[in-house]
Amino acid sequence: MDDLVQWLRAQLDADERIAHRAGDSFRQIGATGVIVATEGDRAEECASANWAGIAEHIVAHDPARVLREIDAKRQVIDLHAPGEMEYVDGDVCMACDVRGGEPFYPCKTLRLLALPYADRPGYRDEWRP
């Protein structure tokens, strides 16, 4: 398996662990911050946010949404699997080759998926799209 794909899958695994630790409680913006319904009708403030934008960002990136995004990204990775072609030296992306795009592996699609994680350890500049 390609180094970029291994590294990208590790980043998604880390995001998944964080999202699972956050739980799947309902989140909403309260008067002073982000509110999490924890048990029954009891609600707790989990993050005080003086700026509405911060609270909105936290709520918009609820763990359930993050988990759906991780699942979608994993499916995209699986679609862009490497393969061999007689006329190309080295692996090609089977999805991109079929569509007539840049066929070489890792393809631009995988490089774009990795780009948001460029600030994390292990990211290589040669992976930049």
Write the layout of secondary structure elements.
Layout: H1 3-22, E1 27-29, E2 33-39, E3 42-48, H2 52-60, H3 63-79, E4 82-84, E5 91-93, H4 94-98, H5 108-114
Antiparallel strand pairs: 1-2, 2-3, 4-5
Helix pairs in contact: 1-3
Summary keywords:
129 residues; alpha+beta; 3-stranded antiparallel sheet; two-stranded antiparallel sheet; 45% helix
Question: TL;DR of this structure?
Answer:
The protein is α+β, with helices and mostly antiparallel strands.
Report what the structure shows.
This protein is α+β, with helices and mostly antiparallel strands. The chain has one domain. The protein has 5 helices and 5 strands, in the order H-E-E-E-H-H-E-E-H-H. The strands form 2 sheets. Strands 1-2-3 form a 3-stranded antiparallel beta sheet, with helices on one face. A two-stranded antiparallel sheet has the order 4-5. Strand 4 and strand 5 form a beta hairpin. Helix 1 packs antiparallel against helix 3. The longest helix is centred in the first third of the chain and has 20 residues. It is elongated.
Can you give the mean pLDDT? Answer: 80
Overall tally of structural domains: 1
Structural class: alpha+beta
Number of helices, where a helix is a run of at least 4 consecutive DSSP H or I residues: 5
- The helix-strand sequence is HEEEHHEEHH
